[in-house]
Design goal:
Layout: E1 7-10, H1 16-27, H2 47-55, E2 58-63, E3 69-78, E4 81-89, H3 98-112, E5 117-123, H4 130-135, E6 139-140, H5 148-159, E7 167-173
């Protein structure tokens, strides 16, 4: 991005297919980790599922300087938190600040709603997952610190084939 912040717009119902394509491109980076390369070939949410998330009112698309979609973030207010369900940046725009801009936008939205935190689940050791979220102010939660909602999400992920030992829930408390 050469230091130029992306334009972030609200996602609209017609973006369902776009978000699926963006997720697929973002997942290509997992090919660089042999044990997780399978993610690049599976698990994209359907356009219909993205339309459901968009309807929750907390999904955005990042655009480059010429209006091309280069990333997205889908979240949902749940209780006192905004939960990030998915964030993705197209492969050739990763590590250029697009994800950070989307997270900052989501955090600002959560604050505007008066929520107390932003949460997510992610891989513990993947460099562009938990370590990157840590740099964005998220804290990894121990099992003892998990609320029932986050514990249930991690359990559901494990049932879907993501080993619990590789995953974590994270929270960014909003002041």
């Amino acid at each position: 991005m050469s230091g130029v912040a992306p334009h972030i717009r609200p996602a609209v119902p017609g973006d369902g297919r776009l978000l699926t394509a963006l997720e697929h491109s973002a997942g290509e980076l997992f090919r660089s980790i042999p044990d997780l390369a399978w993610i690049a070939d599976s698990g994209d949410r359907s356009p219909a599922k993205y339309r459901e998330l968009i309807a929750a009112g907390a999904s955005w698309v990042a655009l480059d300087g010429v209006g091309a979609a280069i990333g997205f973030l889908c979240a949902e207010p749940i209780g006192e938190a905004l939960h990030i369900w998915e964030i993705g940046v197209v492969l050739d725009r990763q590590r250029q600040g697009v994800g950070r801009a989307l997270i900052a936008h989501a955090v600002a939205h959560a604050r505007a709603l008066g929520l107390s935190a932003v949460t997510l689940t992610t891989f513990r050791a993947v460099p562009w997952n938990a370590p990157a979220y840590g740099r964005a102010g998220f804290v990894s939660l121990s099992d003892a610190d998990l609320d029932p909602r986050l514990a249930a999400l991690l359990d559901a992920e494990e049932a879907a084939g993501l080993p619990r030992a590789t995953r974590c829930a994270m929270r960014r408390v909003l002041m």
